[in-house]
């Protein structure tokens, strides 16, 4: 959720029930890189009371270690390495998921970062680039270099978000590594989280895009895992969430059309739970200004505000995530442990 999991979005999420901890958007690391100020703010000005892990993406060992040292001067819970981004624009630079083609490079990076990071050092990965041929070697390297937490998205890089999630491969990681494992991939609801934890044996789940659609998901997961009653989200609740998003993540000084398009990025996901026919998404995507967009929201959400918002995304109602646009970017993910 690059360009999503910023300070403003974290504040909004916290209103509905924060995850146990956050991962920032990724810091892009290269020879000329410096810590991006807006991502630093999500660490230093974070009001949620939750720990924040700083996520990096890159392949230059000197620059990764330099950045890790800089990050540890901030109040971070730990430093995280992204080896999972599936966006072609990213993996073609041999960073993110592109690293999974080269276990030798991974070994070099993990060794250097483990020697540099004095606190918690975590890794996010997928199960391979276009196959699982190197997966066992990657898991061995996680053990060799004493990684403190491993998050596994149960697809290859080339599968992006289209295939079924291979939860058996996440379970394989759980049995192979000594550190806790978070399961990632299609954690769409509290029921899904419970099933995935049971099926994989993971210590918890990492939630990304589903938190845009349903910011109550972290609360609901806790309620379900503790045997309580899950909060029932209504369409009226969703309309209030959209208003809070608009106030929190848009800049009133920018043009109306820009604010409208910014909100559409979130509504692409929220709309998956509004109506099974996708009428809301169809109309929303054609709005030209904020006034028209809010009018569409009112028609679809306030006609019967006590009606339930769908617990799972409606089948066939497809969002258009950032990572599948012409300039794709992987999303750093909020996480919640069991």
In what range is the share of β-strand residues?
5-15%
State the low-pLDDT regions, or none: 322-338
The CATH architecture classification of the largest domain is Alpha-Beta Barrel
Summarize the helix and strand pattern as letters.
HEHEHEHHEHEHEHEHHHHHHE
Would you identify the CATH H-level superfamily of the largest domain? Aldolase class I
Whole-Å distance between the termini?
22 Å
How are strands sequenced across the largest beta sheet? Answer: 1-2-3-4-5-6-7-8
Please tally the β strands and state the result. 8
The average pLDDT is 93
The structure class reads: alpha/beta
**Major β-sheet, in short?**
8 strands, mixed, barrel
Number of domains: 2
CATH class of the largest domain: Alpha Beta
Total of helices: 14
Q: Roughly how many Å is the radius of gyration? A: 19 Å
Helix content: 40-55%
- Give the overall shape: globular
Q: What's the CATH topology name of the largest domain?
A: TIM Barrel
Report on this structure:
The chain has 338 residues and is of the alpha/beta class. It has two domains: 210 residues, Aldolase class I (TIM Barrel); 92 residues. Helix content is 41%, strand content 13%. Strands 1-2-3-4-5-6-7-8 form an eight-stranded mixed barrel, surrounded by four helices. The two termini are 22 Å apart.
């Amino acid at each position: 959720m690059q360009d999503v999991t910023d300070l403003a979005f974290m504040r909004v999420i916290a209103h509905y029930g924060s995850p146990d901890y956050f991962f920032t958007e990724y810091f892009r690391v290269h020879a000329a890189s410096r810590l991006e100020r807006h991502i630093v703010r999500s660490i230093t000005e974070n009001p949620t009371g939750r720990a924040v892990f700083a996520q990096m993406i890159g392949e230059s060992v000197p620059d990764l270690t330099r950045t890790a040292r800089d990050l540890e001067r901030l109040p971070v819970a730990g430093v995280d390495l992204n080896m999972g981004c599936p966006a072609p624009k990213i993996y073609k630079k041999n960073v993110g998921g592109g690293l999974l083609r080269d276990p030798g490079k991974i070994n070099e990076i993990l060794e250097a970062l483990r020697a540099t990071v004095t606190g918690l050092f975590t890794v996010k990965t997928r199960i391979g680039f276009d196959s699982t041929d190197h997966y066992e070697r990657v898991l061995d390297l996680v053990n060799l270099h004493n990684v403190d937490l491993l998050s596994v998205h149960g697809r290859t890089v080339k599968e992006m978000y289209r295939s079924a999630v291979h939860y058996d491969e996440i379970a394989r990681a759980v049995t192979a590594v000594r550190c806790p494992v978070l399961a990632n991939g299609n954690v769409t609801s509290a029921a899904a989280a419970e099933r995935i934890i049971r099926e994989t044996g993971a210590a918890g789940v990492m939630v990304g895009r589903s938190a845009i659609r349903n910011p109550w998901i972290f609360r609901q997961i806790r309620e379900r895992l503790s045997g309580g009653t899950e909060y029932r989200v209504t369409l009226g609740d969703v309309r209030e969430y959209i208003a809070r998003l608009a106030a929190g993540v848009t800049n009133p000084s920018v043009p109306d059309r820009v604010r409208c398009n910014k909100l559409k990025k979130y509504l692409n996901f929220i709309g998956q739970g509004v109506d099974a026919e996708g009428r809301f998404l169809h109309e929303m995507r054609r709005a030209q200004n904020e006034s028209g967009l809010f009018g569409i929201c009112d028609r679809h959400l306030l006609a019967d505000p006590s009606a339930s918002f769908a617990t799972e995304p409606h089948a066939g109602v497809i969002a258009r995530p950032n990572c599948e646009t012409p300039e794709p970017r992987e999303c750093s993910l909020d996480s919640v442990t069991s």
